[in-house]
Amino acid sequence: MLQVNALRDIPQISMDNTCNMMLFIMNYMQGFIILSCLIAVSVNFSTFLVIGTTSPVTYQVLGHLKTCLVLSFGYTLLHDPFTMKNILGILVAIFGMALYSFFSVRESKKKSTNDALPVSQV
């Protein structure tokens, strides 16, 4: 036979408890919104610095590095399983970043040696 008074065993949340919980959430929500804004400003400022110091292509390469790191940390910390597609994508991205770095350094060395040559005066 089904008991009609089964609802009495469910813990009841008082109105005072609910109001305190809402005040707690609202106080911390403002802090999280401010923290989110500060992080967004920091990201925009770092983007400005990276593009101003290097180039937009380097910024894109750093973006791909960040994606590879996010996937790797997701696997390490959250035990998110990798598929062969993920592994292949990460390897191709790392290979591309290595090639870009190699040619970028080689080009900057060529420029620095060309700039360092003394100008002969006739």
Automatic annotation (TrEMBL):
It comes from the Eukaryota. It is a multi-pass membrane protein. It is found in: Membrane. The chain crosses the membrane at residues 31-51, 87-105. Keywords: Membrane, Transmembrane, Transmembrane helix. The keyword Isomerase does not apply. GO terms for cellular component: membrane. InterPro entries: EmrE-like, TPT_transporter. Gene3D superfamilies: 1.10.3730.20. Signal peptide: none annotated. This is Sugar phosphate transporter domain-containing protein. It comes from Aegilops tauschii subsp. strangulata (Goatgrass).
